[in-house]
Structure formats: C-alpha cells, structure tokens
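User:
I would dearly like some help making sense of a protein record. Take your time, and here it is.
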Amino acid sequence: MSLIGDGFLTIFSFVFLISIVVVIHELGHYWAGRFCGVHAEAFSMGFGPTLFSWRDKRGTVWRVAALPLGGYVKFLGDAGAASEPDADKLAQLRAQMGEAADRCYHFKPIWQRAFITAAGPIANFILAITIFAALSLTLGNRELQPVVGAVVADSPADNAGIRVGDRVVAIDGREVRAFNDIMRIVISGGTSELAVDIERDGTLIPLQIVAARNTVEDEFGGTRRLPQLGIQAFSDPVVGGVEPGSPAALAGFEPGDRIASLDGLPVASFQQFSQLVVAADGVVPVEIERDGQAMTLTVSPRETPDGATNVSPAYARLGLVSGGRLIEYRRYNPIEAVGYGISQTGAVVSTTVDYVTNIITGRASPELLNGPLGIATAAGQVAQRSIEGHSSAFDAARALLVNLINLAGVLSVGLGLVNLLPIPILDGGHLVYYGYEAVARRPLSMQAQALGFRVGLVFVLGLMLVATWNDLNYLLGQIF
C-alpha cells in the first residue's frame, strides 16, 4: 500500500476507535443524567466547528463537529462557578435559576451525581463486555495453546528449567488459557518474580521466574523493551509449505513431511527445528517421516537474507513454512458469550491495574504507556495487518472491521480505568470529592477544589508528556 493509503487507513482507524469509545463514554453520562432528571443542554460528537446540529424534543442540541476526536455532554448549569461549587456559589446559582434548578446537575443528591459521574466509565466497561461477547458469539474464539515450542538459550525460562512441550497452566495464581495470556501477564508484571505453574507429562511443576527486559523488534520495524520469559508458542514439526526454488525444494521436502531430527539432533517442535537451522552449516541431514515411512534428506542452508530479522530461520535459510500451531477453536452460546465477555474485560482490567501498580513500585517501566499518537499508530498497524493476505476486498474489509472492533473493546476498558483514577479533572477525582461531601455533609471548599484541579491538570499533562515521548521514540525507531 502507498504512503498516502497507509496514512488514510491509519487516520480512518484512529477516528473509528476514538469515536466509538469516547462517544459511548459520554452517552453513559448522558443517559444517567436523563435517568436522574438532569437536563442536557448539548451533546457533541467531536470538537471544533459544528458541521451540523439538531435540537431534540427535550431541548438538547446534538452536534457533529469537524474534529472527530471525542465528544462531550454539557449539563444544565455545568459552566463557570458551577464547575467548582461550594455552598455560597450553589446558593447564588439556585437563586438565579429558579425552578430550572431542579434539573441542574449540581442540585441533585450526592448519590445521583456520583452515579452520573461513574456512568461514563461504566458505559466503557459495558461496551467492552458487549464487544467481546458479540465477537465470541458470532465468530467463535481461536486460542493459541500455551504450550512451549522453543526456549531461548540462557533466558529466564531456560534457567528456570522450562522445556519444549511444557504447558503453562497458571502465572501468579491466574489461569492461563492461551499463549497470549502469558505475554499479557508477563508484560504487566515487569521484572517482579513470577510464580509459574507448568504441566509436564501430567505432573504440575511450580517455578519461580523473573522476566528479563529485552529490546524486541516488531514486524513494522519499531522496537520496544518488553519483559520476556524467553519462550515461543508450540508449532507441530510438520512442513506446511515449501518455497519454490529454495534449498528445501531442491532437497525434496514436501508439505506434510514430519521433521524428526536435524544433523542427528531430535526435533520436538517447528520452532526448535528453526533454532537448529540457525547454527546449521554446509550440507546437513534432516530425518523426516512421509506417509508413515522414515527417510533422510540432505539440505544446504543459504545465507540469511538481509532484512529477515522477523522471519523464521527455517524459512529464511531453507524456504520451509510451518504446518501450523496448536490452536483451539471454540463456539459459544449466548450465555457463555456473555461470560467470556466479562472474563476478557476482567483480564484487561487486571493486566492494566498490575502494570500501573508495578510502575508505581518501580518494577515496570512506563515506556509502554501510549497517548493518542500511540493509539493512532496501533490502530494503523492493526488495520494494515488486517487487510494483508486477503484475496477479496470483502474479506479484507471484514477482517479490518472485526479487528478494529476488538481493539475498541480493549481501548474502552483502558479509557474507563483511566477516568476512574482518583485525580481531579477526571471522573475518579469527582467521585473522591463526592465521597468527602457525603462524609463532611458539605462540599469541599472552592479553593481546595481549584487547587485539586490544578494539581490534577499538571499530573495528567505530565502523564501525556511521558506517553507522547514513548510514542515518538517508537516512531523514530522505525525510521532510524
């Protein structure tokens, strides 16, 4: 795809994601306000100049703005002094508003104000559950099994004694159902010691492992420093494809061949075979099984082509493609789908909370925090990956929509959690103020609230600077 095409796809994907998660967040506030009898003066989808607008029968102005990067809902009285209310200011405001004060947000009971405030993040969690449940119900779920296919030499996993064929059952007491669960828990755990339970030949073995932070290059040329155990997912040592004219093709390899050994060294997985290929030199014998018959082929690995750092050595040097990984496909009924949606949302919440906690305690680096630029980059990468390798525009569009919706579910959980942080200017900060008001039976003073908002603003801006710095470092790493 061209540079212009990539840029358009990235912008479209980013706007699609932000529009969904932010508008749903604001709709949560809006519907909770309606339930509590609060009048919404305006609901804006986007920021900046108004493209078009209309007024509904309740008097709410709905507008679509030129910059589709979010939105907001404006309740009656939600401006000026009412944004930092104390008893005196509220009394003045009530006198000014007269009977309309009954529909004003700030004159509602504490529990209603707290409910309206919390409804935004709650809507994000409901959106995530709905997305994960709907995808599992309509498409099923493909899970890469948490079986070890290769162990990197001198890695934390190697030093702990993990072997090819081991199944990871749990990490820090959390069940591992798919290989992605391993990566998710390890990354969120940083460099803290992890209790890893593995199953080997029917026996459960507990291990203690501290992940090592390594620089990892992705398929887009960017690099990130990620905590890793040093394991790869299992692939059956079966040939799935042979590149025409490659050393493997010249040696006589065929799809379906099961690899038993290379140069006398036994092979238990395709990844292990690929690791052995790295050290292979000259003509090497490869024992295979074809149609139940054992045979030996001799092959001469070629030099690894430039730019093949993210390509399997078995393909780069021999031209062999794996026959496939251990994937479990499952369909869900409606009840199971809802349960899956809740569990997936809970898993994202748990991972995020663990990661933030480990940042605070110094066991994880904040370099994985991303801002709008990072979200746009991730959206563009997901979009590009989605449309590649499809024979028809319909299949590409379908994959793009499914993957973006799934990413929207993850992003929705993140937005909900961020807004619940007890920081003034965020929903969580307002909830803290309401908690104080409930206990003290009066609002926090306007001066204290103003100070809190300033401190919160500085904190949020600092967080955005860190996130933007991370985003820029990643993008610059793709160029230089």
